[in-house]
Amino acid sequence: MDARTKILETAARLFATHGYENTSLSQVARDAAVSKALIFWHFETKENLFRAVLSRTVEPYSLDLDLDGLSETEQLKKLIDLYYEFVTENLYSVRFFLSLFLRDEAPQSDLFARILELYELYRGQLREIIESGQKNGTIAPQIDAASQAGLILSALNGILVQGFVFAGSTPSAEALLAPLKAALVDTLKIQ
Amino acid sequence: MDARTKILETAARLFATHGYENTSLSQVARDAAVSKALIFWHFETKENLFRAVLSRTVEPYSLDLDLDGLSETEQLKKLIDLYYEFVTENLYSVRFFLSLFLRDEAPQSDLFARILELYELYRGQLREIIESGQKNGTIAPQIDAASQAGLILSALNGILVQGFVFAGSTPSAEALLAPLKAALVDTLKIQ
DNA sequence: GTCTATATACAGATAGAC
DNA sequence: GTCTATCTGTATATAGAC
Questions:
Q1: Phi and psi dihedrals of B19, rounded to 5?
Q2: Closest CA relative to residue A128, chosen from A75, A187, A190
Q3: DSSP three-state, residue B189
Q4: How far apart are alpha carbons A124 and A50 in whole angstroms?
Q5: Hey, which residues 83-112 in chain A have their CB within 8 Å of chain B?
């Protein structure tokens, strides 16, 4: 692996673990086994390095769906599973981004706009599926699709955050997925 | 106000806004209009100051319930409202504590143990109410009380976190409370 | 209790050899 | 591209006057 990549990977790990301000370039240099000067040669400033790291981190973020042949409630459940998988597969970075948002350290940039956009896209999908089910009579019409989509997503986020914070003590995140589907998806069905 | 208190309040605000590492004692001294040396005279180290700040912050955290004369589902809804009120009233510190947990910056201390304890206490309450309702036949017996309590709490946390991150864009936190109660409490009732 | 002045360490960043 | 040596600022912390 070339030095530039080594720096990026090391910085990604340290930023995600300790945050931006709490990670020194001396530490990145030490862990990556290069000189500090080399970091500046490649990235010019610490902030540029940070942006490069974020860029690489977000790059694989995507949402591609294959919901063919499923009923609306099955589609919703599939989306819930996909979201859960996505977060667990990107645990460190999701956790990191969340902490950036919480501390208002998220720079206003295309990257963060893209993350929010992806999130909105996901919520929009949930909503459309519910509305589609209401049109063809498989989902109760009195439900407010936007609220229900927001609620499902909030519950999912809450489960994941709870997993971040209380690793072990509370019911595990995975164990709450089934009750989530039962309470927030199955109850939508028209019997 | 005496200088010590002034330092504590200033530090509390800065720590909560910028985090521990990102807040310098020079800045605390400047904002509190005292010398840096005075901070050290009162608190000896930066970390001690931090602990003192956390201590003062958590001190008013408590949970006192008055659920007399309410049905089980009404009790659950009341608890949801109380939790929501508690978090919104302590928005900055809750947000701060969450970011500490996310970054593994939470020192293992009585304070953090107390926060987790309070949280467990709340979840235990939800669970007991559900079990009580199952015993007297007002809540469906096939529900797993522990899971349902965890799910309600997760959904609540998710709603609040969503409020932290997306102030404005998504459905407001408050708007999701009613759907939450409808989906996770009212559906428990035996018709 | 509160201050000014200072010690010491380490941060981000640059200069210049190779 | 990569290094060593160094600059400059600022961090935590201390010494000692008042």
A1: 85, 170
A2: A75
A3: strand
A4: 30
A5: 95, 98-99, 101-104
Alpha-carbon distance of B158 to A169, in angstroms, equals 18
Q: How far apart are CA A114 and CA A63, in angstroms?
A: 12
Least trusted range by pLDDT, from A52-61, A67-76, A181-190, B122-131: A52-61
Tokens of A15: 């930023």
Burial class (CB in 10 A: 0-12, 13-18, 19+), B166: middle
Strand partners, B189: B139
B127, B145 contact by CB (below 8 A) = yes
* CA separation for the pair A105, A98 (Å, rounded): 10
State the smallest CA–CA distance between residue B68 and chain A in angstroms. Answer: 27
Dist. CA A47–CA A41, nearest whole Å: 13
Question: What is the distance in angstroms measured between the alpha-carbon CA of A46 and the sugar C1' of C15?
Answer: 19
- What predicted TM-score, i.e. pTM, was given to this entire model? 0.87
Q: Look up residue B127 and give its two tokens.
A: 């669970």
Least Cα distance to A130 among A64, A80, A63 occurs for: A80
Give contacts of A150 with chain B, Cβ < 8 Å: 162, 170-171, 176, 179
Give the orientation angle of helix B46-58 with respect to helix B91-102, to 10 degrees.
130
Q: What percentage of chain A reaches a pLDDT higher than 90?
A: 64
CA A82, A87, A89, A93 torsion: positive or negative?
positive
Nucleotides of D under 7 A from a protein CB: 1-6, 10-16
Q: How far is B181 from chain A (nearest CA, A)?
A: 10
CB half-sphere exposure, B124, CA atoms < 13 A:
8
Say if the Cβ atoms of B157 and A153 lie within 8 Å: no
The nearest CA of chain B is from the CA of A44 a distance in Å of 22
What pLDDT, in 10s, does the model give residues B35-68?
Answer: 999 999 999 999 999 999 999 988 888 877 888 8
Strand C contact set, beta carbon < 7 A: A 23-27, 36-37, 40-41, 44-47; B 2-4, 33-38, 41-42
